[in-house]
Amino acid sequence: MKDRYAQIQFIAANYLRLQGLRMVPIGLLVLFTGIWNNSRQGDLSGPILSFVGIAALYWLIDLYYNQVFGRVTPTPAQHKVELIVSITFSILAILSFVLDSAKILPISMLGVTLAGALAVDFWQATRSVRGEAFALFPEMLVSAIVIFIVSILPIFGITWWEAFGFKAQVEGMLAFDGIVLIVAGMWGHLRIRRNLSAGEAKSNDIAL
Amino acid sequence: MTSPFEQLANLDKLIHEPARLAILTALSACESADFTALRRLTGLSDGNLSVQLSKLEEAGLIKTKKQFVGKKPNTHVQISAKGLEAVQRHWERLDAIRKNAEAWENDTPTPET
């Protein structure tokens, strides 16, 4: 009996985080950045149009979730932690991008940072449901592991990005991260749709 | 020591009712939720959710705020301090009853065949 209530509590505490489609525009932005950086055409009309399109897509997704799934406001404590984590990983991502562009390290620090951000997100969301953590939020942990593995492949001499036509690891990694975020977002959306369309809870009010 | 059955019978029935316990459990994990989100989270029908929210509000366990988003009415629901304390205490009691039931089961002699 308690499992159902634990699931309700978990979803209520992570309502925004579990709305997977919100990750799709972010993934598209990262993917387009990688592709545009790789082509280096100097023409900014493409990135500007992409940015406007992605912002419009995010607005539509926000509207969809608010109308179909409703709004849940996180507690001030949850909001504060999310803000601190977001700012910290944004700074780390910029530093990693600079490091990767300078080609100082053999691994992709951008990928390692994103994997770390996803792993922290997974840990934060599932702290209260340790035993069932993976079943409730699998896409974050799987994405973190996949991105981490691909990030360290150059250590083993695997320059995978060349096979896909990318000039450098940083562009290839951006495109790969974007694709992973899009897939994880869609996966998360399908899962939350399934979890929130369960049959009506039985009320035994009359018996009581 | 009271038996688990007696302890179960002494539970607060206003909170222990499954639909209301689901609503309070959801609200205890966030600042507030609107009607649509609560309907999704609990799986209750519109009518049933309205009835349960009225009962919880009458008991002072939740606070509701009705507003309009465009032309659509939107109800925001927040758990009160009394409601939060009550649902936390309720889960603690249920955990205690579960442990007590396990100990009681082990202590009860099995009939010989």
Give an overview in words.
The complex is a heterodimer of chains A (208) and B (113). Chain A is an all-alpha fold and 208 residues long. Chain A has one domain. Chain A is built from nine helices and one strand, in the order H-H-H-E-H-H-H-H-H-H. In chain A, helix 5 runs antiparallel to helix 7 (138-152) and helix 7 (138-152) runs antiparallel to helix 9. Chain A is globular, with a radius of gyration of 19 Å. Chain B is of the alpha+beta class and 113 residues long. Chain B contains six helices and three strands; from the N terminus they run H-H-H-E-H-H-E-E-H. Chain B has a three-stranded antiparallel β-sheet. In chain B, helix 3 crosses helix 6. The longest helix of chain B has 27 residues, at 81-107. The mean pLDDT of chain B is 87. Classes of the chains: A mainly alpha (208), B alpha+beta (113).
Characteristics:
heterodimer; A: 208 residues; mainly alpha; 71% helix; globular; B: 113 residues; alpha+beta; 3-stranded antiparallel beta sheet
Q: Enumerate the spans of chain A where pLDDT stays under 50 for 5 or more consecutive residues.
A: 199-208
Structural class of chain B: alpha+beta
Tally of extended strands of chain A? 1
Mean pLDDT of chain A: 89
Strand content of chain A: under 5%
Backbone CA Rg of chain A: 19 Å
Helix content of chain B: 55-70%
Q: State the total count of DSSP E strands of chain B.
A: 3
Strand order of the largest sheet of chain B: 1-3-2
Task: Flag low-confidence runs of chain B.
Answer: none
